[in-house]
């Protein structure tokens, strides 16, 4: 991550340094006195040196990122930016530095007092284009690099746009050369700078500002209008890149995703009633506020089912005006039960009822949450845990706790806690008792967890058991947003602590403490290492290996840029340079083996979640997974990281594949995996009950 931040920061700093250097270099010949001319020359050279140092740092960051994460992470910077930066840098070394020596020699030759006007020869030397032109050209290249970085973040590399940027660079360079050459000729003819009248100068500056403002307003209005999501559209239709509706129409008998339901006729083994409602709750900070809850509980009720059971859940919306759904995060339900408003169902509006039915095939820790405007609804409290227990429960009694990690925005800032309001949460556990802690990250950011006072094992990730996990001591866990870790240990005779940050435990800290009695504190939370699933456990037979032949291979490149989404100017998060509804549609056929490359060249984490499937992580930054097979449904792709993952297309329908930082999904970071021959009859937009994420 550090090298990505260095890359971004150096691009901005280079534009700032080169901008000041260009301003100073262009004004050397206009200095009123010899002393001022010498001072501006020195300042220009200092700023040129600073710019050169920043450029060196940027090059080092580019090389480091390419070496660790691969060419795909730096492709746009290397191809689009570096030519515009290195060519002027070479010109500065070749032309501007020798010209600076000539200017300094002319200043010294004049031997005038510092407050006297410079000699005509010194002015002519300072106005020579070979001095100022490379410095100003470096600023143009740095400025266009900033524009490319923040406005043109696409993959595959948009050759036409890159050529357009280079064309602007070349045209600007030509105009600059003409202007500097003409200034030199005017100065040679007049013998002194021609300032013009004050009114003329104000007229020129005002005209430039007015022209720039007009261009900006036109660009803003047209961009905002073009980005608006239609009042009525299909999430998997022609507006979505790939035109899935055409694929469905081409099939002999296209199938609606509404038909891909769970068993409808059999009696359920488990039945749950969840009522979405507005509820006043007390936050860990002590603040009273309105929440949206299931059954008035925050989090919602913890649902327990047995592996292989048929589950029926009745969702009733009492008074959540925008409508709600339930998505079963991590459970590979049939497509119609997936709970995505506008794709697999309509939002459940107030006083409406919706029935979900599915078979809980895989034991593990999962969670559920609304998937309608989820960035707001999950934040407001519409989430809970569902645990699928093995069909054969462990014979020995155990302490089995769910630890839900979630952020609440309060008037005093974000509050995150594992305990009650500003105090420890204590749980009694007898020595020798097997303990399982189920960590669920319902927040938008990676969650750190420290476990103190006992060796522990991570036995499952996202509901999938790990093979031969080993003991961990002093390792910090990092849970992806939406991800889950199951941790087990045998209770010792002393206290065990769980905290979100390092440091000593105290009675007024929001943390979890397990102890044989209602007393005692564990050792201070600390971590020497970060838990790495790629090398944890031991290898075992898996579905995908080095010799697997794949039917499809897709690449997803994540980035950040400034742009418009649904009529608003925002810092958008992109997949292959695009945002919903123009994000990619990845087509598959049932039974195919699909490989995906996930690369993050932005500077924010992207926890990617593919609905309806589990992925196997094959490699990270080109290095194969060496531990237990790593199976997940939510994978955090940190800045500067590149993963290869694979899945089997064994669950027909149309599935979201989106960032589970739900604020990112809310500004368009959502794509879809669609099976050929299927279509969605549902729509989203202002004219429907289903609103974009």
Outline the structure in words.
Residues 276-392, 570-674 form the Plastocyanin-like domain. This is Putative multicopper oxidase. Strands 23, 24, 26, 28, 29, 30 and 32 form a 7-stranded mixed β-sheet that branches. Strands 13-21-20-15-18-22 form a 6-stranded mixed β-sheet, with no helix packed on it. The protein is of the alpha+beta class and 693 residues long. The protein folds into 4 domains: 2-195, no CATH class; 244-253 and 541-679, Immunoglobulin-like, CATH 2.60.40; 255-393, Sandwich (Immunoglobulin-like), CATH 2.60.40; 394-531, Cupredoxins -  blue copper proteins (Immunoglobulin-like), CATH 2.60.40. The chain starts with a helix and ends in a 14-residue tail after the last strand. Helix 1 runs antiparallel to helix 2 (34-69). The chain is elongated, with a radius of gyration of 31 Å. Helices cover 31% and strands 28% of the residues.
Could you write a compact summary of the structure shown?
The chain has 693 residues and is an alpha+beta fold.
Q: What key phrases describe this protein's structure?
A:
Immunoglobulin-like, 6-stranded mixed sheet, elongated, 693 residues, 7-stranded mixed sheet, 35 strands, alpha+beta, 4 domains
